[in-house]
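We were asked to recover a plausible sequence for a given structure. The inputs and outputs are reproduced exactly as logged, with field labels preserved.

PROBLEM: sequence recovery
POSITIONS: 86
GIVEN STRUCTURE:
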């Protein structure tokens, strides 16, 4: 399943094409934000952006508020994203 909005693709992260054993992407952290909503119920989520050190694809991961991406966190590829080198 791939969602596309105005030409921007987001898809569940698959195997990294640049690893010999078709392993997972090698996460290099970038920016993150904690998002909160107040009301009933109060909700919070942490959104992380990064890239794969092997193939360079942009990655997005979600976790609980205040958390950090782990192997069990949902991870998505953003193949059309342009990353600023920094």
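RECOVERED SEQUENCE:
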């Amino acid at each position: 399943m791939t969602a596309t909005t105005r030409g921007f693709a987001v898809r569940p992260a698959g195997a990294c094409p640049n690893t010999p054993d078709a392993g997972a992407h090698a996460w290099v952290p970038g920016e993150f934000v904690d998002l909160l909503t107040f009301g009933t119920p109060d909700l919070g989520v942490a959104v992380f952006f990064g890239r794969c050190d092997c193939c360079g694809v942009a990655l997005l991961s979600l976790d609980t508020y205040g958390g950090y991406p782990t192997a069990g966190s949902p991870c998505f590829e953003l193949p059309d994203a342009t990353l600023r080198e920094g």
